[in-house]
Design brief:
heterodimer; A: alpha/beta; Metallo-beta-lactamase, Chain A; 7-stranded mixed β-sheet; 5 helices; 14 strands; globular; B: alpha+beta; about 25% helix
Chain lengths: ~280, ~140
Amino acid sequence: MRARFWGTRGSLAAPGPDTIRYGGNTSCIEVRPSDGSLVILDSGTGIRALGLSLNGSIPKRIDILLSHLHLDHLEGLGFFAPLWDPATELHIWGPPSPVRSLSDRIAQYLSPPLFPVRLAEIPAQLELHDAPEEAWTLGSATVSARPIIHQGPTVGYRIEEGGKALAYLTDHEPALAADLSSVPAEWVSGYAIAAGADVLIHDCQYTEAEYPERAGFGHSSTQHVASFAKIAGARRLILFHHDPNHTDEDLEHLCDRVRELWDGGTVELAREGDEINLR
Amino acid sequence: MDVYSRPVAARVPQRHIALILARDLAANVATPMLLVDESGNLVYFNEPAEGVLGRPYAEAQMTTADLAKAFKPVNEAGEPVPILELPLATAFQTGVPSRGGFWIEAADGRRPYIEVVGIPLFARVGDLVGGLAMFWETTPED
């Protein structure tokens, strides 16, 4: 299984000279299980370039796993080339809501006046699914989803194949509900998704100095992500959902700080274009 | 598929997010509260509840039956109140909040009258993940 980052930024796309090393596109990761099937984590602005990279060889079936429906995770969907190909079977999975269907919630964005075309008019063969409680199979991989702490219905995903696991918790504030230094792991949001992951891709939007004024926004600080990686026993931590106001240099300071706080595995910054191999 | 061949997320113990958030609420309010999991096992009560129940919370599970034995809900005549008639049990059975009052023989020997609101926690329609009870000492209405 391999994965490639197409968008690493959180909240708002932030292109420009200050973000050129780690990228300005919002959340999108291409995951390729060993059978070559295409699974996409979130459809932020990065999904546009992913669609173009398929260069006409669009797989018949594509699965998009949405962590939640905030715009930075959804706004690229309308610009994903396979959406406009009637031969594409596009399965979109997302967090269940106790109130409204996934279709109704996505249609709120994919409809006028926010978008010129209605969801029902999209040429691709769309199938929308609430992320189930039981694990399911996509190609040669097994996927699990669990609700996690963020603003509104949000899930984390775990993709496993051949004994390797990639955990994706892009917008996540576990410290909102627990003192991560003392609470048992079973009471920590996201633990079931991240436990023992070979690669943990996790929200690290804020510095410790920034966090107090943003508590409750649904994101983690450097200290929180370090504590969470320790609880989860992750082997490789990739910091994700970069704040749009953080320059490349800011991000490198932030990464250094996480390395000071946690030495249980490798720590790096998610960077547009980088690939991960899980073998 | 045996349990050890299931994906890790399915066998790693973690409370449902609704219970995690309810515990955080309980830890930050002055009203006595307790939480049970989807099977009715006691999984947490807060510090104000310790004052009413007369014993500290330990990080150990306790079944509903153990809970009833430990806190001995009784009626005015001192007769035990059946577990299934307690508000939280009623809430689990009916799927809607339930309210009631009774005495308890607390672990510290006191016998306060308490009123209880039991609330089932549904993560989505039909998906019961636990319940919470808020309670307070008061005097019985005539």
